[in-house]
What does this fold into?
Amino acid sequence: MSFEKMQVDRKCEEVEEIEVPDGGYGWIVTIAVFLYNFCTWGANAGYAIYLEHYLRYDTFPGGGRLDYAAVGGIAFGVGLLFAPFITWVSHRFGVHVSIAIGIVFQGTGLMLAAFSRKLWQIYLTQGVLISFGLAFIFVPNISLLPQWFRRKRSLASGVAAGGSGLGGVIFNLGMQRIIEVKSVKWALIVQFIMCTCLSSIALTLTRTRRQAVFKKDNYKIKLFDKEVFSSPGAWLVCGWVSFTMLGYVILLYSLSAFTTSLGYSPTQGSYVSCMISVGNIIGRPIVGYLADMFGSITVGVVVHLVVAIFSWAMWIPCKNMATAIVFALIEGMLMGSIWVLLGSIVTRVVGLRKLDVTFGALWIFVGIFSLPSPVIGIQLASSVQNATAYVNTAIFSGFCYFGASSCLFLLRGYLVARDAASDQDSLMDNDEVAVPVSFYSFSKGLITLRSSKKSLL
It folds into this structure.
């Protein structure tokens, strides 16, 4: 037996198995995360309606296509650049304090945006403030469900992620109707009331098992863990996240404007954008269920590849409303699978004890690559409004998801090899990043169908 193998086995014996209830109050926490997703990612999906309105009516003096697209990118990504700090806040002062700060940021941003009259004000309110609200709510809650579930982890994540889909439906259709009947100002005020009230209810339901996870450790709050990012698996996860966010945000924000480029009305554009959210509601729990049956990474490889294929095969030749609706529904079911699979995959790569510090660094990649996505989508689209205006955008989105699928395929091979090297079922959800993997075993893992562990990949 090699010296490295002896070290790994010794570490396995010293690590106590982490108990995970796999349900119980965890389902209440799932409802809470569902509401958080409804009020953050779901509400953020509704920016497609505001974006189309700003583009059509040139709402703010001096604002152009890139300005309004940049506001959407800022709202999605700027706050996540500070994720390590937010992680530190949640550990130092508690998850509830962090989320409460986020609720205040988001509510303040929405109310001030409702009364904004200048372009820079929209950048700060509907962009920066809402982005920090989203980050302070989302960053602490993404690690909640892995603490409560193991075998049903992806299913619970899928149910919770469905909240963003329901939110997308309501905020797309509801805010579009309010804009038509009243104004953008009243749409933002109503959104403020809904998000603040529902997030506050979710906050009262939130519970964490952090003490149970770290009870045996002399745990110190870290902003960065060198051991985690010495692992190739962590970098493959970063690659997957980066490629996905480039394609995801473009799809999320572009389809409403794409529909109007075909000659349809803003209301009809909101219907197409809404179908993405309908697809989220249907697809995310299904993806979670399949991930628990066949493995999160395996399902992720297939799902992201399918999104790429449909971006090329269906979006590029799309010429009418019916095709756009079907395309939006199919892509909506699959394109946001990252939010279903992320918790399970990251936990599988680094373990529960290193989950928060890994997410803290991972959100930086989410922020960096989601920030320019709306601008890239707008720039790739032709300024001439016709059926071919978004061909380049569709090609780019497809290649983004193809890159994401490739990263997950490589990650699966790496984990198969790492499982064979550790050969310890008891390591599940514990720190496994120190297990060495040779290039030969990694190459072999790429063509291996099953892991040596009982857990699925």
Q: What stands out?
A: Residues 24 and 148 are 8 Å apart (CA to CA). Residues 1-15 have pLDDT under 50 and may be disordered. The chain has one domain: 22-209+222-446.
